Amino acid sequence: MSRQLILAVGAGALAALFYVAVGLGSFGSLILAYLAQLPLFAIALGAGFAHAAIAVGVGVVLIAAALPLTVAALFLATVALPVLVLANRALLSRPAPDGSTEWYPPGHLLAALNALALAGLVAATLLLWSHDGGMVGAGKALLAEMTRGLVADAASRQAMAVARERLAWLLPALVLVSWQIMVIVNGLLAQGVLSRFSLNLRPGAPFRELWLPQWLSFALVAALIASFMPGRIGDLGGNAAIVVALPFVFLGLSVIHALSVRWPARTFILVCVYFGVVVAGWPALIVAAIGVLETWLSLRQRFSGGRPQDGEE
Questions:
Q1: Nearest one of 217, 123, 237, 117 to 177, comparing CA atoms
Q2: What count of Cα atoms within 13 Å lies in the side-chain half-sphere of residue 76?
Q3: How many of the other CB atoms lie within 10 Å of CB of 21?
Q4: Is 102 helix (H, G, I), strand (E, B) or coil?
Q5: pLDDT tens, 168-193?
Q6: How far is C-alpha 29 from the geometric centre of its chain's CA atoms?
Q7: Which of 93, 117, 74 is nearest to 245 (CA)?
Q8: DSSP codes, 65-95
Q9: In Å, how far are 53, 62, 142, 287 from 73, measured between CA atoms?
């Protein structure tokens, strides 16, 4: 048995162990569950797609042997599938006109992940269509079950009901946005560790040169239009708009990185921007708007001579 095959088996077992650790209920186990994709990404970006598929198979088999099949199916859909899809894309390359190797663009990897999130949102909408209130109604029921018994007096119960009403509409988008961030964090961590020891198959790319395919802009416009429609279509459109906005947040941050190269207080400004996006939240809307403008106006090319966003693979 080759060394890489042993590592693939070990990566699959480790991913399964991390994933089921959430059952322990401790804070440390939650962190491990969040990092379940890390060993899968590491073997994918360090040994190739075939070894990643072996690792996924080992993880699914181990979980299915110890827990109900639904848990193994959830692992496959939420943890393994994005790794396989992104690894398959990330390891694609072609000769560039100047003789160098051109790798699959990081922005297209973001778009592929976003497409998976949108597919999950549509699937959830269809599966819960017959539920009272559809996807949002199911979210209300889930939140009501989770918060049952937390408050005793009538005023607090009323406030809790209002909070559930508002959160239920955003719940699908919040889940899918956090899921995308989880995938991105694990992929970047794996690539960073591999690069540190020169074990990575593909090189890194400067963040300030990130660009997105044009279809994401049209998807965002379509989702925003759908969000004004009544009923479940409006719920789907509103949540889809939030989901599609995430890649534009990263693109907006990339624009800020590129434009701030010559600013004297660059580090302080970047810290403030990231603090606002992560802690306050609402500045992410401004950053996403910058990302949308970049796809149409090529802000980096206009103001700093960066690469134009051409939308080509």
A1: 117
A2: 14
A3: 19
A4: strand
A5: 888 999 999 999 999 999 999 999 99
A6: 21
A7: 117
A8: HHS-HHHHHHHIIIIIHHHHHHHHHHT-EEE
A9: 15, 12, 21, 36
